[in-house]
Amino acid sequence: MSASNLAPSLEPAEPDRVWFRFMRLHQRMLIQMTARIRALGLSIPQFDLLSTLTEREGISQSELAERLYVTKGNVSGLADRLVQAGLVERRAIAGDRRSYAMHLTPEGRRLAEAGIAAQRDFVANTLGKLPGDDLTELDRLVKAWRDLARAVDAN
């Protein structure tokens, strides 16, 4: 990528155009990451669940649903498939006969770590190539946008 592609635009920004650029970028990145994760034999939801367990193993399916922003039913079906594939184990939680702690198997951990490495590589080769000051400014802007979206939800 040439430096001219990273130069700031002199045209005034319009919220609608910025929105569409952002959504197109999101779609492009999702397609690119999906291909990398599929090369490991996983879907994005499967990778999300496995990578979440690398952060905090032994959580319940309810906690997983909260962390993944999906329903408990979605996590249950996804977990069933990952258990059948030998990537996740359900272990009984002492004193709670209705809930199970979710744990990675060695193969599940290997695939999660491979997916995380692919994700880090993708980020390093895209976002990581922005100058530090630009990255800091982008982070500030994304947080501000996130806060505005949260405020809309709160109303």
UniProtKB/TrEMBL annotation:
Gene3D superfamilies: Winged helix-like DNA-binding domain superfamily/Winged helix DNA-binding domain
GO terms classed as biological process: response to stress
Tagged with keyword Metal-binding: no
Domain HTH marR-type: 15-150
Top-rank taxon: Bacteria
Gene Ontology molecular function: DNA binding; DNA-binding transcription factor activity
InterPro entries in alphabetical order: HTH_MarR-typ, MarR/SlyA-like, Tscrpt_reg_MarR-type_CS, WH-like_DNA-bd_sf, WH_DNA-bd_sf
Keyword list, A-Z: DNA-binding, Transcription, Transcription regulation
Annotated PROSITE patterns: HTH_MARR_1 (PS01117), HTH_MARR_2 (PS50995)
Protein name: MarR family transcriptional regulator
Origin species: Bosea vaviloviae
